[in-house]
Amino acid sequence: MLLQVRLILLALFFIVPATATQAGSIQIKSVNLAAVNQEFLISVDSEIILNATLEQALEKGVVLYFATKFSLVDSRWYWLNDEVARSKLRVGLRYYALTRQYHLNYPSYSQSFNTLQEALQALGQLHDFPVSIKSELRQDVEYIASLRVWLDLTRMPKPFQVEAIGSNQWNLSSEKLEWRMKLPTPEQPLFIKGHE
Fold first, then answer.
1. How far out from the chain centre does Cα 196 lie?
2. Helix runs in the chain, H state only
3. pTM of the entire structure?
4. Phi, psi (deg, nearest 5) at residue 128
5. What tens digit of pLDDT does each residue of 138-155 get?
6. Domain boundaries, the chain
């Protein structure tokens, strides 16, 4: 019960608008999909900028979770959303006041950084992440691919989720990047330039 009261009080603290409001943004700069050893690996280069509200939340010990999702849909069944392959990665960004370091927590490892800028730069770089194949893929079929990077509010404490509903300060997402493609080959990886 005491933990819930603290979370509610912390959430109320963030309802007061920040005096210096800078706009946060996520921009996907490029996507690379490569065929390597019978699997597909995706690399994403994006730029992540936090607004003042999110920076304050970090300094107060709130973990910000960022998700990157790539999906491949069979274009013949697009209206049924027949997803044939996907890749989703969630990374936590946390600040430790004691060591004055920022940490990125990946599913299998973590990294530490001295500045927020360094942590955000690393967070925006996804290298050779495997794509999970759900159905048989064929080289002669054209697929619809999509990619999005966003602040995943579902992983945050409930009071923050409630506050985020009515606030643009907590809504941080890239535009959804979509394109039609045939599968890359080992000799010819796929490179897509993102929104500038």
1. 18
2. 2-15, 52-59, 116-123, 158-165
3. 0.82
4. 50, 50
5. 888 889 999 999 999 888
6. 25-193
